[in-house]
Amino acid sequence: MYRIGQEEIAELTRVIESRNMFKINSGLQESRRVEEGLCELFGAKHSIYLTSGHAALVAGLVALGIGPGDEVIVPAYTYISTAMAVVEAGAMPVIAEVDETLTLSPEDVRKKITPHTKAMIPVHIQGFPCNMDALMEIARENNIAVLEDACQADGGAYKGKRLGTIGNAGALSFNYFKIISAGEGGALLTDDRKLFERALIYHDAGAIAFFGDQMSGFETEGFCGSEYRSNELCAAVMRIQLTRLDGILADLRKNKRYLMEGVADLAQFVPSNDLEGDCGTTLAFRFESEEKARAFATAPGVGGTLPIDTGRHVYTNWEPIMKKRGACHPAMDPFKMEANRDIVPDYRADMCPETLDLLARSVYVGVNPDHGARELQEKIAALRSALQSL
């Protein structure tokens, strides 16, 4: 989270004083207004405001008809939640390499497609846009669905189109560590009415048919789902956060460009599929060895991190996935289901060597949208000193 203030406090006060804190009400209707705001801001026909980005991914997969017997391609570098969403839907996550941009490799996706592949989840990690032209072409050629994971890229873009609105559906996240936040929260975006109806039912299967007229005009019959419904308190905060999004992104991008220009003669940057659409949260460097990457990251004033060290964002640390523990009850475990018997992947720690190599030779330096000229110049001086010492 970058910015929050009195506006959010005032909206929270209004909701509490109204005593209408349930999503469906005749009062302030904050959740409905957030969903309308998401559609307008992102240019999507439908949106659902949920409890988390993970909830959005699961709802999206269920809406796409993904289940036992299906494979879904995910990148080797993403938070474990991406792969766990596939398992929660009953399907098998197939782990593919990332390319030099640290996003899903179109080349490796082609290699991983089988007759069982039903979807892929490109992840716009750290706000870095995936190569969506190439991935969408592969999807069309092979008749597979695309569910974008834009949970770390709220508001980012690829060739002028918001991330999360290019594939069949897209997931956003609003937890504390994201660009905008209500502490927790997420959203699913789609232009497909059928997907919207299915996802809406799944995300709140009990209340959707009980409160209000949420299923008015639906062609989809109700089915048992989950309860990923959010509330008016979180929505009140999120509605204000949405108004801050483009300003935050503009300042992040401006400061990232300034930092890049300040060290461009010394640095090799991680390449981007769309630098203008990149969210600007992270300045990413590439080095010829892990030793140099670590020396740079720990140099005075740099404050860098290596993505290889980010725990459950690296597939080798996805313990429940790697050890194929898909559920508490064995009969509910997709890795043990008869429908998946012939497609359970052979996960190995060394199965994505290109990803591990790239992550170990990259360094992230965070960008602060509120830094002014003095702070930026100090950071540039530290970065230049570190680069010159290697």
Structure notes:
- This protein has 390 residues and is an alpha/beta fold.
- The protein has a domain at 6-241: Type I PLP-dependent aspartate aminotransferase-like (Major domain) (Aspartate Aminotransferase, domain 2, 3-Layer(aba) Sandwich), CATH 3.40.640.10.
- The chain is 37% helix and 12% strand.
- The protein is built from 12 helices and 11 strands.
- The chain has helices at 6-18, 30-42, 53-63, 80-88, 106-112, 132-142, 193-203, 232-263, 290-297, 319-322, 353-360, 373-388; strands spanning 46-50, 71-75, 92-96, 117-120, 145-149, 157-158, 161-162, 169-173, 186-190, 282-286, 362-366.
- Strands 1-9-8-5-4-2-3 form a 7-stranded mixed sheet, with helices on both faces.
- Helix 3 crosses helix 7.
- The longest helix is centred in the middle third of the chain and has 32 residues, at 232-263.
- The mean pLDDT is 97.
Structural class: alpha/beta
Q: In the CATH hierarchy, what is the class of the domain at 6-241?
A: Alpha Beta
Order of adjacent strands in the largest pleated sheet:
1-9-8-5-4-2-3
Broad shape: globular
Number of strands: 11
Following the backbone from N to C, one meets helices and strands in this order, namely HHEHEHEHEHEEEEEHHEHHHEH
Distance between the termini: 33 Å
Give the rounded overall mean pLDDT.
97
Q: CATH H-level name of the domain at 6-241... which superfamily?
A: Type I PLP-dependent aspartate aminotransferase-like (Major domain)
Based on the coordinates given, report the CATH architecture of the domain at 6-241: 3-Layer(aba) Sandwich
Oligomeric category = single chain
**What portion of residues belong to β-strands?**
5-15%
Separate helix tally: 12
**CATH topology of the domain at 6-241, anyone?**
Aspartate Aminotransferase, domain 2
Can you summarize the main beta sheet? Answer: 7 strands, mixed
